[in-house]
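Supplementary Note 3. Input sequence used for the single-chain structure prediction.
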Amino acid sequence: MTIALVGAILAIPVVSVAQTQDKIVYANVLNRNPIMEQVQIAEPRRVCREQQVVSQNAKSYTPSIVGGVIGGALGTQFGHGTGKKLATIGGAAIGASVGRDIQNKQGGHTVVQEVCHEETGYRYEDRVIGWRVTYEYDGQPYITRTASDPGDTIKLHVLIQPES
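The predicted structure, written as discrete structure tokens, is reproduced below.
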């Protein structure tokens, strides 16, 4: 009876277990068009122009000192005793003040100076941000978007799985 049982088991047809298959195929590209986007690009630039500027002369104590000395020397020509001392001091003070006023009235001189600053300009540029691709697989057209131009063929990842 054991032999009959073994024969019966061997007579049972072998059923294969369904498996999912993965394969790579190439499909013909029918059409491909770039997808464009306009982008704004900031461009810093240096802008310069010539401008007249009044340049101040460097401040000096020399005119005040010279004025004080001259005023003091003139003050010694007047009065006697204490009056002479007061005239000398007054002459020196007035001479120093006059020397300072003369220097301040001279002001400065006008020079042409280049004045620059930074400005941001903008330009617009069209950039390709992807590709709209029409391809044919198994006699049917399909449309997809890719990051780069696929060329004449597109690589497809095909998953084959039996229907359950």
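Residues 22 and 159 are 5 Å apart (CA to CA). DSSP finds three helices and four strands in the chain.
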